[in-house]
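Technical appendix A lists one of the benchmark inputs used to test multi-chain prediction within the project. The record comprises two sequence entries:
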Amino acid sequence: MAQLILALDVMEKRSAIAIATACIPCIDAIKVGYPLVLSSGLGIADDLGQLDLPLIADFKVADIPNTNRLIAEQVFSSGYDAIICHGFPGRDSAMACIETAHEYGGECYVVAEMSHPGGTEFFHDGIPEEITRLAIDCDADGVIAPATRPERVAYLKNLAGDRKVYSPGIGAQGGEIEKVAAIADGIIIGRSIYESADPAAAARQYDWIRR
Amino acid sequence: MAQLILALDVMEKRSAIAIATACIPCIDAIKVGYPLVLSSGLGIADDLGQLDLPLIADFKVADIPNTNRLIAEQVFSSGYDAIICHGFPGRDSAMACIETAHEYGGECYVVAEMSHPGGTEFFHDGIPEEITRLAIDCDADGVIAPATRPERVAYLKNLAGDRKVYSPGIGAQGGEIEKVAAIADGIIIGRSIYESADPAAAARQYDWIRR
């Protein structure tokens, strides 16, 4: 059983709210990224917050500690429940996001490995494992692992222990959901739902992963 | 001779504009990051654009190619002149930012190595060099190298050839400007200027690097 997390990477506020609202019965959380937040503002959290689902700011925060903290403070004071940061910029940078999340009673997930083809170019030879260990050491609430490489999700989930593993890359990116849904704590799906003519029906097709 | 680039990492729009305006005679470009843009919106480019200085969106973009492109499109259609992206998410991700920048007549700089203490945890053993080569191959306009490690700036500048090298980490982060100003094409300074009681006077102290 895995959660279904809607990646709401649309650019238009009204359309974002309509899609999320239609999908409420079929999803467990909403993940927004910079494409939507840059066009609509962080305040989109006020609108989406009314849907009573956890709201994840997937900003893949990857700056120096001081800047990471400033970003995370704005995210949590705007009402988001969780943030996604990169581990690649090192322990102090990740820690700035994790600590800020916890100060606000929120959660922080660290990207251990990315889902796109270029995602293995620098995330290899033990680096995703090292980032996962860093995430656990720093008390992150979970890690992000690529559904496009199910064997990696299994491996990193094993390493992550009781921390959550959320997994993007299903659908448009080509990941096979059958393999990943049995392993990950949450499956992140974007284009397959929000680009559908009927997003609610598209989301409903994934209902089996939640049982 | 190096450019002086003001890192305008303040959170308040009015104060950002006041500081930038006061510093005009002493700076060559303005760099804004997410702390300011999340609080003020991408539209801060309209206000800062009136100062007639190149405006750099330092978003350290680090997502999958599709998302990177969506972010870069918003940045350039909002009037920014350049964007900073990460190289560690791989060639396809960096390429999405670089291509979008060039489509809009803008520039893109790739982070080769970061300036904070944790910045050597994963950026080591040839990785900054590999990212610099990737940036050149992908026709990026420059790379970012850490003023906190002047010998690395020199090494990466040598590798970067005719591409620009911009260097943050002076002042609050402890970088020694004398060493780096002779090597880098631009010095990025934030807190030492914007946290000063007299930002214009603080910026003027760096005027010698521009001669």
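Residues 4 and 158 of chain B are 20 Å apart (CA to CA). Chain B is about 40% helix and 20% strand. Comparable benchmark entries are summarised in Table A2.
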